[in-house]
Fold these 4 entries.
Entry 1:
Amino acid sequence: MKLFLYQNNYYGKIFLTVILLSFVFSCGPSTKIVNSWRDPNISVDYRSIVKVLVVGMVKDESTRRMVEDKMVSLMRANGVPSYTYLTQNIVKDLDSAKFVAKLRSDGFSGIMIMRLVNVEKTTSYVYGSVQPSYYGYSFGYYSYASPMYYSPGYYQTDKYYTVETTVYSTMPDKLVWTATTSTVNPEKFDQTIEEIAKILFDQMKKDGFLKE
C-alpha cells in the first residue's frame, strides 16, 4: 500500500509540473524584439523629455486613434497623439520641409512613429504525442507498462504582425532609435499595444538609449 501511494505521488508531481510549465509558456509574451538600433552618440534622460509626438501610421482613422491614445497613456513623458496635431494626411505632413521647425517651435523634443510593416501567415505541423495514463495503477508488470494515450497531430496556422517603431529627435533632426517587433496571434488590441509598448521601452533601456 505504501508503494502504491508513493508511485501515485511521484507521477502526480510529474503531472503537476507539466501543467505548471504549460501554463507558464502559454502565458508568456506574444511579442518579441526582432532587432533594434540606436545612435551610439545619443542617450536620453527620461526626465528631460518635454513633449513627444506619437504617430500611428495606420490607414483606418479609428484604429490610428486607438494606437496613439494607448501609447500616450503608457508614456510618462508628455506624449501627444498626432491626430490632435496633424491632419489626416499623415504622410504629407511628415514630408513637409517645415514640419521639424514647427515641432521645435511647439516644444516637441522628439517624435515616435509606429507602423505595421507586414502580416505573415505560417502553417506548421504539430506532431502527435503519446502520454501515459496515471490512473488504474496496479502492482507487478502493469506498474512498468501503464496504458498509453495517443494525441493525433494537427496543422496550426499562426499570424505574425511585424511593427516598426522609430524615434527621431527634433534637435538635431535625426533618427536616434529604431526597433522591429513581431507579435504572434494577438488576441486583444489593447493588450497587444500595451505589450509592444512595454517591450519597446524595456529595449530602449537595454540599448542604453533611455536612462532614468
Entry 2:
Amino acid sequence: MPLGVCASSGTVGHSLSFGRADCVIILSKSAVVADAAATATANLIKSKEDLKRALDFAISVKGVTGALAIIGNNLAVLGNIELIK
C-alpha cells in the first residue's frame, strides 16, 4: 500500500481510444502512473495477438506492478495480480 488501480477501454465509455481492448487494468503504487499506463497499454491492443506485447510494455513502465487486459474472450495477466475463482 498505497495502491493505484486504473482501467481503460477502447470499447466501453465515451473517451477516445486508439485501441480495441475491452478492458485494461493497471496496478501501481501511484494512481497517476496506473492511469497513464492503462491508457497507453489499451491503445496498443487491437487484436488478441497484441496482448503479450502490450502487457510486456505495461510492466516495463516504472512503478507498474501488475497488468490485466481483456479483448473479446481473451484475458491476459502479467505481474503481481492474483486471480481468484
Entry 3:
Amino acid sequence: MAATAMEKRERNQAGARDQTRGGSVYFTPLCDIYETPEELALIADIPGADPANVDLRYDNGVLTLWAPCQTRGDGAEALEQEFNVGDYYRAFEIHEEIDPERIDAAFNNGVLTVKLHKSEAAKPRKIEVKAVEGK
C-alpha cells in the first residue's frame, strides 16, 4: 500500500510542472468548482503564494489565475527539500454569464476562494404557466 501511495505522489509531482508559460515552468494548482443558482465558486490551493502578488483576471468568459511563489528558507541551506518551488498558473473558460463587477476573491492560509456571481439574465427563473380557456 505504501508503494502505491508513493507512486501516486510521484506521478502527481511529475504532472504538476508539465506546463509552460512564457518559457518558464509553472504549477497547475488543484481547484474545486461549485455552482449554485446565484454563483460559481472556485477554490484553489496555492500554498506559499503572497496574496498581494496574486493576479486574478476575468476577461471574455475566461478566468485567469497567476501567482508567483518565492523560495522557502530565507536563504538557509536546505538539508531536505521535498516541495518544488515555482509559480502557479491556471485558466478557466466560464460558460455562464458572469457579472464582472461582482467577482469577489479571498485568500486564507494558501487557499484562494473566488466567487463569480451570475448576471440576472443567466440565473434560472421559474416561468409561470397560465391556463387558457378553450374556445
Entry 4:
Amino acid sequence: MGGAIGPIYDLFFQGIGAGLRQAETINARVLGEAMVLAAQKIMRIAKAQPGEKTILDAMQPASEALLAAVDLPLSDALRMACLAAERGAESTRDMLAVKGRARFLKEKSIGYRDAGASSFTLYLEALTDAVIKEEG
C-alpha cells in the first residue's frame, strides 16, 4: 500500500474492533457507532478532518448513513453506507489535498479522487457483499 494508508487502516480496524468488542450482535447502529469511533481515532492520531481529501471524506458519510438506517436490516443499511461513501469519495475530486502523500501535488491534486477514500468505498462494498451472502 502506498503512502500512509496501511497505518490508517490499522487505526480504522483498531477503532472498529474496540467498538464491536462488547456487541452481542452487529447491526447498523453498532457498526455505525464503531465506525464513528474508528474515524475519531484516525482524526486524533493523524490530525486529519473530513474535507481534507482523505479516507475520512468517505468514512464519515458512511457512518452517518449507518446511524440513519438503524431500523433497516444490516445489508440494506450497508448499501446506503456504500452510496454515501461513494459520494464522499467522489467529493474529494474537487478538493486540494492537504494531508498524506497527495499534499505534495498541491493544485495538481485537484481533479482526482483521494485514493484512501476510494479504497474505503471498495472495502465497504466488499463488506456489504459478504453480509448479503451471509443474510442469504
